[in-house]
Design brief:
Mean pLDDT: 92
Radius of gyration: 24 Å
Helix content: 25-40%
CATH class of the largest domain: Alpha Beta
Shape: globular
Number of strands: 15
Low-confidence stretches: 1-8
Number of helices: 14
Number of domains: 2
Length: 481
């Protein structure tokens, strides 16, 4: 969703948002900046009450100072005044996650606010920016102590949603008796990125593009995720996660699914998610035959950057944790049968880039036989861009072909408009009860069914030995390009 400054769409009045884990890194870097962005652009009603809950002994002023470096400037300026007004909406409660006391004080604070505002039907949103190990602990306490039985309750849950099929199902099983399906909003922040959301519009609102989006015309589909840094401070987390769980099973699979699914029967949230699930069911489960390359970054060529195992936060100095993986996918349906689908992800590489590239087939006949094939490309990070390549005649007398870009980047077309960032979009959607861009349980189940056999292979006794590639390089040798 893209809002303009002249047409703000606000949340409903007197909403209560509770941020669990408010003193943590996620809240500092993503949640608060997103909320301030919505407020500064006129999309967060000033009557909203934001209550922070965490175990740490911090103040609202300390929370403000910690998040300031991550808040972007508003399109209308006057940010200092806006920031002051925004944090006047914020309060903080210190409490434990596994005992009733803090939640009782939280409920008292919520009820005092709702009584003061004369709220008849409460609208409460609970954001779980906490480790997955305590998802169900917090969720149980929310249901027990602060659930809005006479109003609306929504619970936003951050990934990861389990670490394999079994643990994901256990998590779903734990949430099921607590909340209805429409009350749970599982975030994959890539689904909030504007260019991810525009992928559907580009495909299905332009018949000429969608009609060429098939095995007769497309040579390959490639998804790339490259980071120019390593574990650096996150080794404890990353060593138990690896690159497959960290970005491939969730973020990159979401991009791939939207790029390859059939057109939904409507713009309804469940119709979109139904189409995604149907596409995932056409994919073969991943195993040894799908692995093209696996790797782990070593020292940089100049010796200035440490290897993965030399990172102080990586405790297991014999770890075979994968920091790079390249996979192939097979989609068995009429549109994609036989088309190579390639996904690559790595840390400690030569650049910062996340993209999907639809490579069209070469012209095999006629006067321009063998000319450079067309591409449809979306760069999601660091600079969001979307373009197609197009063959035309170069200037001059000679009939020389030249390939140009047909640029569809929002920044070029709508320079004065506010384009919401991922978390701004997703928080907005949750407040409005829109769940098309959140992950549904059956989609989660199918995606883990695809990846769990692969994870058992790369983490099992017959796991492939990761190739050591230099920090700052393009990755292991022999990867597909």
């Amino acid at each position: 969703m893209t809002q303009t400054n002249s047409e703000p769409v606000k949340f409903e009045k007197d909403t209560v948002l509770v941020i669990f884990g408010a003193s943590g890194d996620l809240a500092k870097k993503e949640t608060f900046p997103a909320l301030f962005g919505l407020y500064s652009e006129g999309c967060l009603d000033p009557s909203t009450k934001i209550i922070c809950y965490a175990r740490s002994n911090v103040t609202v002023e300390q929370l403000k100072k910690s998040c300031l470096p991550y808040c972007r400037k508003s399109t209308t300026g006057n940010d200092e005044v806006k920031m002051k007004k925004f944090f006047n909406m914020v309060s903080y409660i210190q409490g434990q996650y596994d005992t009733d006391d803090g939640y009782i004080r939280l409920n008292d604070a919520i009820e005092d606010f709702e009584h003061e505002r004369g709220v008849q039907e409460p609208h409460r949103v609970f954001y779980l920016a906490v480790p997955p190990s305590i998802f169900l602990t917090v969720a149980s306490q929310v249901k027990k102590n602060v659930y809005a039985y006479n109003g609306i309750t929504r619970v936003i849950v951050e990934k990861p949603f389990g670490d394999d099929l079994e643990s994901s199902r256990e998590l779903q099983k734990g949430f099921k008796p607590l909340f209805r399906a429409e009350e749970i909003y599982k975030i994959d922040h890539f689904l909030g990125k504007d260019d991810v959301r525009r992928l559907l519009t580009a495909r299905f609102a332009n018949p000429f593009l969608n009609q060429s989006w098939n095995k007769e015309n497309i040579e390959s589909v490639q998804v790339w995720f490259k980071e120019p840094f390593g574990a650096e401070g996150r080794g404890g987390f990353f060593d138990s996660t690896g690159i497959i769980r960290d970005v491939m099973q969730n973020h990159l699979l979401q991009i791939l699914t939207l790029a390859t699914m059939e057109e939904p029967v409507s713009n309804d949230a469940d119709a979109i998610r139904d189409a995604k699930v149907e596409l995932l069911k056409c994919m073969e489960p991943l195993g040894p035959k799908n692995v093209v390359a696996v790797g782990q970054y070593g020292k940089s060529v100049d010796g200035k950057k440490p290897s993965y195992l030399d990172d102080d936060t990586v405790l297991n100095k014999e770890s075979k944790c994968l920091t790079f993986t390249e996979l192939t996918f097979a989609i068995h349906n009429d549109r994609w049968e036989g088309v190579p689908i390639i996904m690559r992800a790595g840390k400690g590489l030569d650049e910062d880039r996340v993209e999907i590239r639809i490579q069209y087939k070469k012209n095999t006949s006629g006067m321009f036989e063998g000319c450079t094939p067309n591409q449809f490309v979306i760069h999601f990070h660091p600079e969001p861009t979307i373009f197609m390549t197009f063959n035309t005649k170069a200037p001059g007398f000679a009939d020389k072909l030249h390939q140009i870009k047909l640029d569809m980047t929002y920044d070029q077309q709508y320079k004065k408009e506010w384009v919401p960032e991922a978390y701004e979009c997703l928080i907005y959607d949750a407040f409005q009860g829109k769940y098309a861009n959140y992950v549904r349980d059956d989609e989660l189940d199918v995606s883990w069914s695809l990846f769990t056999p692969l994870l058992k292979y790369v983490e099992g006794p017959n796991a492939p030995q990761p190739e050591i590639y230099p920090y700052g390089s393009t990755g292991p040798k022999g990867i597909l390009e």
